[in-house]
Amino acid sequence: MSQISNLFLSIGKPVKDEYGRAVGKIVSFALTPSGKFDAAFIELSDGKFSKQPIENLTFNGSSEITFISKIKSQANILCDQIPFIWRKDQALKDLAEKKKISPDLYQELHNNFDSILNQLKKDAQVLSDEIAQEVVRCNQDIKALSYAVLHLELEHEIGKINDETYQSAFKLLQENLKRANTEKNDMELTKTKLSNILLGDSKEPAQKTKVIAAPINEAPELPEPPVVVYVKEVGKAGI
């Protein structure tokens, strides 16, 4: 969570998301009665305030603060919990087969594990649907930014925008396209990871590891903005 002991040193410092976009700045913290940091109060870029769990933030020193999306945090927790509960249930089954616990005790504990596992799976499915909506949003952002680049190119081509303004705007648009593509790819990989956990929870752990790893190599590459192909200044602007 943090590499500094006194998080209050980060008050007033900017917060960015994982893709480099400005989120806001730290204004205060909430602590538990025992003195443990529990949440951070963030003034968002639009002036509103948000209280975020401290687990959703990473602190690299007192000035570099990164906000981890709630979706990714929840996905990471579920991807840890589902296999863990499944392994405990399998260990319980092994103990029962070795006659180390009574059938009644096995059934009681198995039903408990099964109930927890089913709830975690439901949570994972709900989260997977939320991720799918985020992917749709990313696609919409990418499309809108691509049109913005296209219109910028047209206005520059007919001489309505000078070179300096064009280069500055082009660079900003390309940076935002890169962020949107990175976020989309990130969301798709997270969704794939969740899906593989749900599909592989009844397999042996060794087999499950292979199932999870395979789709990573198959993840689609980031699509290039449509205008990059014919823009001569791409070498100057870069992505």
List keywords for this structure.
2 domains; disordered C terminus; 6 strands; 239 residues; SH3 type barrels; six-stranded mixed sheet
Q: Describe it for me?
A:
The longest helix has 55 residues, at 103-157. A hairpin with a 4-residue loop joins strand 1 and strand 2 (22-31). Helix 1 runs parallel beside helix 3, helix 2 (103-157) runs antiparallel to helix 3 and helix 3 (163-200) packs antiparallel against helix 4. The chain has helices at residues 70-97, 103-157, 163-200, 205-218, 234-237; strands at residues 14-17, 22-31, 37-44, 49-53, 57-60, 64-67. It folds into two domains: 7-68, SH3 type barrels (Roll); 71-83 and 128-237, no CATH class. It contains five helices and six strands. The two termini are 30 Å apart. The chain has 239 residues and is an alpha+beta fold. It has a six-stranded mixed sheet, with no helix packed on it. The radius of gyration is 24 Å and the shape is flat. It is 58% helix and 15% strand.
Put the structure in a nutshell:
The protein is of the alpha+beta class. Helices cover 58% and strands 15% of the residues.
Radius of gyration from CA coordinates: 24 Å
Distance between the termini: 30 Å
Order of strands in the sheet with the most strands? 4-3-2-1-6-5
Q: Give the biggest beta sheet.
A: 6 strands, mixed
Count of beta strands: 6
What is the number of helices? 5
As residue ranges, the low-confidence spans are 201-239
Q: In the residues, how many domains can be counted?
A: 2
Overall residue-averaged pLDDT value: 83
Helix content percent band: 55-70%
Helix/sheet category: alpha+beta
Give the overall silhouette: flat
Strand content: 5-15%
SSE order, as H and E? EEEEEEHHHHH
